[in-house]
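User: These chains co-purify. Model them together.
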Amino acid sequence: MQIGEISKKTGLSISTLRYYDKHGLLQNINRSNGGIRKFDDKDLEALRIIICLKTSGMKISEIKQFMDWCSKGDTTIDKRLNMFYQQEKNINEQIDILNKSLKLIKFKQWYYEAAKRDGTEKNVKDMNLDDYPDDIRKLYEEAHIIW
Amino acid sequence: MQIGEISKKTGLSISTLRYYDKHGLLQNINRSNGGIRKFDDKDLEALRIIICLKTSGMKISEIKQFMDWCSKGDTTIDKRLNMFYQQEKNINEQIDILNKSLKLIKFKQWYYEAAKRDGTEKNVKDMNLDDYPDDIRKLYEEAHIIW
DNA sequence: ATACAATCTAAACTTTGGTTTAGGTCAAGT
DNA sequence: ACTTGACCTAAACCAAAGTTTAGATTGTAT
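Assistant: Joint model of the four components:
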């Protein structure tokens, strides 16, 4: 497979694939005699994990670190395992943050639905916390815990 | 409250707060005669939603759009409501992606735990899909659905 | 042999979201 | 009045993650 096909398959642009290669994320990709990249299944598998780490917030330089460890062999197994433990933590933190955001978002939906019904924001803006429906008050309070 | 106190409260740096102000995210902040920003509770509330939108992936320019709508009054209620519907979708998509990533991460944890036990990656690398434990094979397959 | 699409590199450019710097002002306490 | 810490602006700077450009090469099909 050449770079165009890989681009279509993965959804990464051709220039991004070359950028990743240049920055050491795609290690030992084969080349034709003429210098054209020839991707195989192992490269696709590497891309799968690159995309996974990338979309879960890891930086290019950290992914490169992982790929370097992979190339270095069995002495780095522990580092790689720990990286995956750490990344699980990172992802769970991100999900928590998103779920917290969701609460404020849903509160605001309720708020603007009320404003829409009234044709004006005025009433709902002046409303007292006690007058919110219970579930909405709960959302509001959970979204305002921190400060 | 002045900018230093707000910075401590929100966790945003002073320069970030000034940057947000400059880019129209903090609308009509009061100033002392000398030109010093004086924040009140409504500004804190605005910051809460700014931080919520920001951490859930919205761009500064989009948040500014929302703030402009807020300033424009009741004619923009519908736009604001729709923005919150859209942002809910965005967040749910992000959570889905993170959960998908988690599957590959957990598969890799299993993989490297096996490698660690063996002292080498070799055995687990050569292992057949059928030899994976059922739950692990499931993780693997779910992480490889797309391509 | 020629045309043509696909590929290659290096280097410049772009965007986003800030941070840093330089050179001032403000305002509270002494 | 004077010091001092907190604040101000404008402008330059920065890093990350690509994208674009320009000019050259590859390799397949006619």
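Chain B has a mean pLDDT of 97.
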